[in-house]
Design a protein that fits this description.
Elements lengths: L25 E6 L2 H25 L6 H24 L1 E5 L2 E3 L5 E3 L3 E7 L2 E6 L4 E4 L5 H12 L4
Antiparallel strand pairs: 1-2, 2-3, 3-4, 5-6, 6-7
């Protein structure tokens, strides 16, 4: 298996626009939304702060405030580190397929269902593969667009 075939995560610098087949039309594109990304990370930092402070209090540590500082710092560093890539990934919906980062292709006929998980639309195929369209400004609208183009209840 070549290195190009075995790619765990797509890379932003490898992303190109979709190459459409004859008769295929681009209907909509979905990219991550910055304000949604920030809101989700603020929520993660808040939840992490409560959890870590609780753990420190439970273990008798007199410095439970460190849980807040540590959680906020960890989520902030992670958020800044991966923001460019996570927000730069774009999925393209055509009349035949959903084309994702790394030229991942999902034929509309192979989509079993589209779920909404917080700010992401999760596409589940008939074979059980799962793909996440992360940090959508309106994940339900993304879900509805895919279902509408697929043509039916998904």
């Amino acid at each position: 298996m070549s290195e190009q075939e075995f790619e765990l995560e797509p890379r932003l610098e490898n992303q190109t626009g979709p190459v459409l087949e004859p008769g295929e039309n681009l209907i909509e594109s979905f990219s991550g939304n910055l304000s949604t990304y920030v809101k989700e990370h603020v929520l993660l930092a808040a939840l992490g702060s409560v959890l870590m402070s609780g753990v420190l209090m439970y273990t008798g540590n007199p410095h439970s405030w460190a849980g807040v500082v540590g959680a906020v710092a960890a989520i902030a560093v992670r958020g800044l580190y991966v923001a460019r890539e996570q927000l730069g990934f774009t999925w393209h919906l055509t009349n035949r397929r959903l084309i994702g980062p790394g030229n991942r292709t999902i034929l509309l006929t192979s989509i079993d269902k589209v779920n909404v998980i917080f700010t992401a639309a999760q596409v589940v195929t008939l074979s059980g593969e799962k793909y996440m369209l992360k940090y959508q400004a309106d994940a339900k609208a993304t879900q509805a667009a895919i279902v509408k183009v697929k043509g039916g209840d998904v």
